[in-house]
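Today's session is about reading a structure prediction critically. Students often jump straight to the picture, but the first step is always the sequence itself: look for stretches that repeat, for charged clusters, for runs of hydrophobic residues. Only then move on to the predicted structure, which in these notes is written as discrete structure tokens rather than atom positions. Here is the chain we will use throughout the hour.
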Amino acid sequence: MERDSLEKLKKGDPAAFEKMLLEFEKPIFGYISGMVNQRQTAEDLTQEVFIKLYKNLKKIDLEKSFKSWLYKIATNTVYDWLKADKRRGEIFSIDEEDGFETIDGRQSYQNIESGLSLEQGLAKIKPVYRTVLLLFYYEGFSYQEISSTLSIPLNTVKTYLKRGKEALGEQIKEIK
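Below is the predicted structure for this chain, in token form.
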């Protein structure tokens, strides 16, 4: 977002909030959907992210990346939900109605030999690895942006990315 828009947003301008919502609602929803693989839960958590953002508009730091801050709110919201949910085995099921299609209309990648979709493989790895993989590959964040978003050192980002790819590879190997 442009600095002028962020200043208006910080002051609580409804038009600026609507503009920000139009720009970030789908990407945040897609990111959260990749984390939880349940459409209704992703919708609820996305709404919660924007409610938290609205309540904290005054905390926007114009000198820092708004996008990183928003994704940090989204990541923390998902992690809070994961910690609170007692039914871990049910968290990562693929919605039957969606099959292998992602929310934003893009087809997911599917390993044709094994029948394992990327979403199913991601669902089986540690949440922190999944987060880094989604931010890097799906959202296009740089190492530095991920470091800032997750408040972890740059080398940790690189380590998590490497371990995440290895863990995902193992999931695919197990299915074959």
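Discussion point for the tutorial: The domain at 1-86+102-106 is CATH 1.10.1740.10 (Rna Polymerase Sigma Factor; Chain: A).
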